């Protein structure tokens, strides 16, 4: 048995492929690439593979992570090449690393950075700074039963202003806390006069652990 | 066109993107011919269709042709498209369908006809063939419902009858020549009169009697053939077959590899249109199929492989094939499914092969509840066959058995319906006859009934169909007969079957109804949530057409039927003979036992059947 961590990108129309569909897609890619993906024992065997931190449909990424277990070792470069030969348009393996004892699990992802392109006039640098200086950033969160106010401020690690319509957001991501860029945008619409709160495009740039370290080398 | 903003707002956006693995990408500007292959249903249904995969592969092998796929947008997408003025588009290049040279629809079931009209409307293509301008695409159709093309004849420029692998390329050739000549639109349609298997409706005129029946059906062009004979492929081992199915992103209805093992059927069930119009039986060799299976496994990565045919267990090399397939699939965790198994040659060995990787439920189709009625329809299976098969299945650990029947068959009585319930009870008894430790813990026998729809080119093409009330009454009667708690019963909506019956045997007068229904909002009629009976009745009233003319009367043998100019293979005399034998509950042996003289080997020039 050998475990690998893969990083892949999701661009163009592939951004519409859902998390669930992606799992099926990769199972088939492993088969086509003739890689020895391991399966669980039992009546209904399933592939030993997991994709970390689902990406919202419609968001592109250059930093998705996938862990897979193989029955036998295959050189990392070969895995990457063989998979990329048989990938649908828009999805590509960018890094492959063999997992060794003690390396962080996918579940230790706790933050992600996104490049957000705003539609319309965007937002002024000063207005964004004001927004980020707020003590709390409360928005209404709908649950099945009720609506309640939640403060998303603690889940925002930073928003960099590149120009009026381009922001880079670093947000809490993962099982403990998860803040989507769309939610931040709706808060901006609420608190920043004239901000449309609508994104023309959202792109995930990276995923890291608490210390800002990447979960894959290279 | 960029449709991202629409895709962000609809359910299942992967229905509309054309970048799946194995999809074909060419530069449209470098192409001489652009063909929009349209399936008049939603993506996940259309992508499950084998014919589309074959023809997509066939056309795209030609260097100067680009075949792209088009599906009916789901209702949420249609709403967005109409709101934003986005026309019907192709998946691969998001091009407007109106920009193509050909717009080809495959006709798989009558209940998709309203989607065709709706798709033409969404594409902004002139609805009626006679109104189409010089620069508009040619609208063509093929598939099983083309065997009665008349309800769509006013909308369609030409139909291709029978198997498409050869005729499509001949049509493309005719198009290249026509295009080079610079001649007007009509000249292309005229040139198609010389291509066997092509029906061009505008070159035929129909007149009617006062009672609505056809008085005459005559060609109005000297080159138009009197009858159009369907095309078949004589040697299936030599015909092209896709070895690289498109692998969709989303889960589709038949999300698997399919191996077509043979065409046609030796059985001759009298209700079955497929069994008649796909004659004669032609098999692929096990060797061809195993080669193909290997390629499909390598090129798709699919986890399931299914055999496709009208009656899998009639394949002569079934053992070699299934053994060979298991060698290819078992180790790779690919499950094998063998649908369409007949009751009378179902075996333990076959069952074990299917369940090696995964054990799913089994479906058997006795079709009718008594031996008399099974003889009427020439199904040929007996109660003993069913009970033997059920015992094998239960003994092998299956708990779920589904029994499929038809309701409303000719000569049917309450006794036949009660027979369905009795058969189901006997199947339950088979389960309890299996030792407790051997059988599955959960028993579930499901009886499922559909309503019989008389189809063109079958021995029952002349018979009266039951009306809605009769069918409902029969369903209620059967519900009352099923008393066992172990048996559950589900049935097909009667109204849907009645409407299907109208279009199955319809004529050109129905085009008005279709146009009218589309305007009233008819679409996705095959989907229960969208089928609207009242809307359709309204459309019939507005168009001044009586739906019951088409299905509530027994036709006489000398009536000109709307599809009489189409030769699907079996002769009309054979169909009459079979209909008479049905009335006497007389069985016709299968084609391998004894030739029934259907005439297909004469009219299609093959000379040899299965």
* Rg value of chain A: 19 Å
Quaternary state of the chains: heterodimer
Quick one: biggest sheet of chain B? 6 strands, mixed
Distance between the termini of chain A: 23 Å
Could you walk me through the main structural features you see in this protein, from its secondary elements to its overall organization?
The complex is a heterodimer of chains A (218) and B (610). Chain A is α+β, with helices and mostly antiparallel strands and 218 residues long. Chain A is 20% helix and 34% strand. Chain A has two domains: 2-103, Alpha-Beta Plaits; 109-208, 2-Layer Sandwich (Alpha-Beta Plaits). In chain A, a hairpin with a 4-residue loop joins strand 6 and strand 7. Chain B is built from 21 helices and 19 strands. Chain B has a domain at 4-227: Rossmann fold. Chain B has 610 residues and is an alpha/beta fold. Helices cover 34% and strands 14% of the residues of chain B. Chain B has helices at 4-7, 43-46, 50-60, 75-84, 113-123, 164-181, 185-192, 273-277, 286-300, 318-329, 348-354, 371-376, 383-395, 414-433, 468-481, 494-504, 510-519, 533-543, 548-551, 572-583, 600-603; strands spanning 33-39, 65-71, 102-106, 138-142, 158-160, 198-199, 204-208, 214-219, 228-229, 257-260, 262-263, 282-283, 304-308, 335-337, 362-367, 400-407, 444-451, 487-491, 566-567. In chain B, helix 6 (164-181) packs antiparallel against helix 7 (185-192), helix 13 packs parallel to helix 14 and helix 17 crosses helix 18. The radius of gyration of chain B is 24 Å and the shape is globular. The A-B interface holds A 12-14, 16-18, 21, 24-25, 27-32, 39, 44-45, 57-58, 86-90 and B 7-8, 13-14, 17-21, 23, 25, 247, 249-251, 297-303, 332-333, 358.
């Amino acid at each position: 048995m050998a475990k690998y961590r893969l990083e892949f990108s999701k661009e163009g129309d592939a951004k519409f492929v859902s998390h669930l569909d992606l799992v099926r897609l990769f199972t088939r890619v492993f088969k086509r690439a003739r890689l020895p993906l391991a399966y669980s024992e039992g009546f209904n065997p399933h592939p030993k593979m997991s994709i970390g931190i689902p990406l919202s449909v419609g968001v592109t990424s250059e930093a998705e992570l996938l862990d897979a277990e193989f029955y036998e070792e295959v050189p990392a470069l070969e895995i990457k090449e063989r998979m990329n030969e048989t990938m649908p348009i828009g999805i590509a393996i960018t890094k492959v690393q063999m997992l060794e004892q003690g390396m962080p699990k996918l579940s230790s992802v706790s933050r992600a950075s996104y490049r957000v392109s705003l539609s319309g006039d965007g937002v002024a640098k000063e207005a964004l700074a004001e927004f980020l200086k707020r003590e709390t950033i409360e928005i209404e969160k709908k649950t099945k039963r009720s609506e309640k106010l939640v403060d998303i401020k603690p889940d925002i690690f930073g928003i960099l202003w590149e120009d009026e319509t381009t922001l880079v957001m670093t947000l809490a991501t993962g099982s403990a806390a998860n803040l989507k860029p769309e939610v931040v945008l709706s808060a901006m619409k609420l608190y920043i006069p004239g901000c449309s709160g609508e994104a023309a495009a959202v792109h995930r740039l990276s995923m890291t652990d608490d210390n800002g370290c990447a979960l894959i080398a290279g | 066109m960029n449709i991202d903003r629409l895709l962000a707002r609809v359910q299942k956006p992967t229905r509309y993107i054309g970048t799946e693995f194995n999809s074909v990408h060419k530069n449209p500007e470098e192409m001489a011919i652009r063909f929009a292959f349209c399936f008049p249903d939603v993506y996940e249904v259309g992508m499950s269709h084998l014919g589309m995969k074959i023809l997509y592969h066939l056309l795209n092998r030609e260097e100067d042709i680009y075949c792209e796929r088009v599906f009916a947008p789901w209702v949420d997408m249609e709403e967005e498209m109409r709101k934003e003025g986005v026309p019907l588009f192709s998946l691969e290049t998001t091009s407007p369908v109106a920009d193509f040279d050909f717009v080809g629809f495959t006709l798989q079931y009558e209940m998709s006809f309203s989607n065709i009209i709706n798709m033409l409307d969404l594409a902004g293509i002139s609805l009626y063939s006679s109104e189409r301008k010089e620069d508009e695409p040619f609208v063509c159709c093929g598939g099983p419902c083309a065997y009665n093309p008349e309800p769509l004849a006013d909308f369609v420029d030409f139909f291709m009858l029978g198997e498409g692998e050869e005729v499509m390329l001949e049509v493309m050739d005719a198009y290249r020549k026509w295009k080079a000549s610079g001649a007007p639109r009509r000249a292309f349609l005229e040139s198609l009169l010389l291509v066997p298997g092509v029906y061009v409706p505008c070159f035929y005129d129909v007149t009617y009697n006062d009672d609505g029946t056809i008085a005459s059906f005559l060609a109005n062009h000297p080159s138009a053939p009197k009858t159009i004979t369907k095309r078949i492929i004589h040697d299936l081992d030599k015909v092209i077959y896709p070895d690289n199915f498109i692998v969709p992103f989303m889960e589709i209805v038949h999300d698997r590899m399919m191996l077509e093992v043979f065409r046609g059927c030796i059985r001759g069930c009298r209700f079955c249109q497929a069994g008649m119009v796909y004659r004669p039986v032609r098999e692929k060799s096990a060797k061809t199929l195993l080669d193909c299976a290997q390629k499909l496994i390598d090129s798709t990565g699919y986890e399931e492989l299914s055999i496709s045919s009208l009656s899998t267990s009639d394949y002569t090399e079934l053992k070699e094939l299934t053994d060979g397939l298991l060698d290819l699939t078992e180790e790779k965790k690919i499950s094998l499914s063998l649908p369409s198994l007949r009751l009378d040659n179902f075996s333990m060995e076959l069952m074990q092969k299917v369940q090696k990787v995964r054990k799913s439920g089994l479906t058997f189709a006795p079709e009718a509840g008594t031996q008399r009625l099974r003889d009427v329809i020439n199904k040929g299976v007996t109660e003993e066959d069913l009970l033997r098969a059920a015992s094998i299945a239960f003994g092998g650990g299956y708990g779920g058995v589904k029994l499929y029947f038809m309701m409303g068959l000719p000569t049917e009585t309450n006794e036949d319906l009660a027979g369905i319930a009795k058969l189901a009870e006997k199947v339950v008894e088979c389960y309890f006859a299996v030792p407790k430790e051997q059988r599955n813990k959960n028993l579930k026998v499901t009886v499922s009934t559909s309503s019989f729809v008389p189809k063109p080119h079958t021995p029952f093409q002349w018979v009266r169909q039951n009306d809605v009330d009769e069918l409902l009454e029969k369903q209620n009667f059967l519900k009352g007969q099923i008393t066992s708690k172990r048996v559950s019963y589900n049935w097909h909506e009667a109204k849907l079957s009645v409407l299907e019956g109208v279009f199955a045997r319809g004529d050109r007068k129905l085009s008005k109804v279709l146009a009218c229904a589309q305007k009233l909002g008819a679409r996705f009629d095959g989907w229960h949530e969208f089928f609207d009976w009242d809307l359709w009745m309204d459309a019939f009233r507005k168009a001044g057409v009586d739906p019951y003319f088409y299905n509530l009367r027994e036709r006489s043998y000398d009536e000109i039927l709307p599809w009489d100019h189409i030769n699907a293979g079996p002769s009309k005399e054979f169909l009459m003979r079979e209909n008479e034998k049905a009335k006497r509950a007389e069985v016709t042996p299968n084609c391998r036992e004894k030739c029934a003289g259907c005439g297909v080997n004469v009219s299609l020039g093959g000379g040899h059947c299965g």
